[in-house]
Amino acid sequence: MFQHEEIGIGLVGFGILFSFLGVILFFDRGLLALGNIFFLTGVGLLLGWQSMWQLFTKKANLKGSVPFFIGLFLLLSVACSWHNHGTIWIFCALQWLWGSYTGLPISNTYHWLDSAIPIPAVCSVEA
């Protein structure tokens, strides 16, 4: 295992820890933002930046990557105070992005969210 992969595992762990603490502490914006930044950096170091970019831009994964970036924008934007909504969007998007690795039937679990995302290019993509 290379050194950058070990650092990536640590950053993913810190990202999950900070996100968990942010949810436990009533959606604390700072902890949630740090958790997402650590998590994305750790995934980038584990998979490689090119593979991570392909994961988010693959046509089959658009249904998860668009809500992820919308949630990340809601979480990190200073102007709006919808960080709890952004967190929910991010968690649902992560289920779509990494649901195939965990074996969860995502299309059956979150079928109600298809109507909540009125983006035709995203809704027409099969999960």
From TrEMBL:
Membrane association type: Multi-pass membrane protein
Cellular localisation: Golgi apparatus membrane
Keywords, in A-Z order: Golgi apparatus, Membrane, Transmembrane, Transmembrane helix
GO BP of this protein: endoplasmic reticulum to Golgi vesicle-mediated transport; retrograde transport, endosome to Golgi
Presence of the UniProt keyword Transmembrane in the record: yes
UniProt-listed InterPro entries: Got1 (IPR045176), Vesicle_transpt_Got1/SFT2 (IPR007305)
Transmembrane segments: 7-27, 33-56, 68-98
GO cellular component: cytosol; Golgi membrane
Family in the record: Belongs to the GOT1 family.
Record-given protein name: Uncharacterized protein
Record lineage: Eukaryota, Viridiplantae, Streptophyta, Embryophyta, Tracheophyta
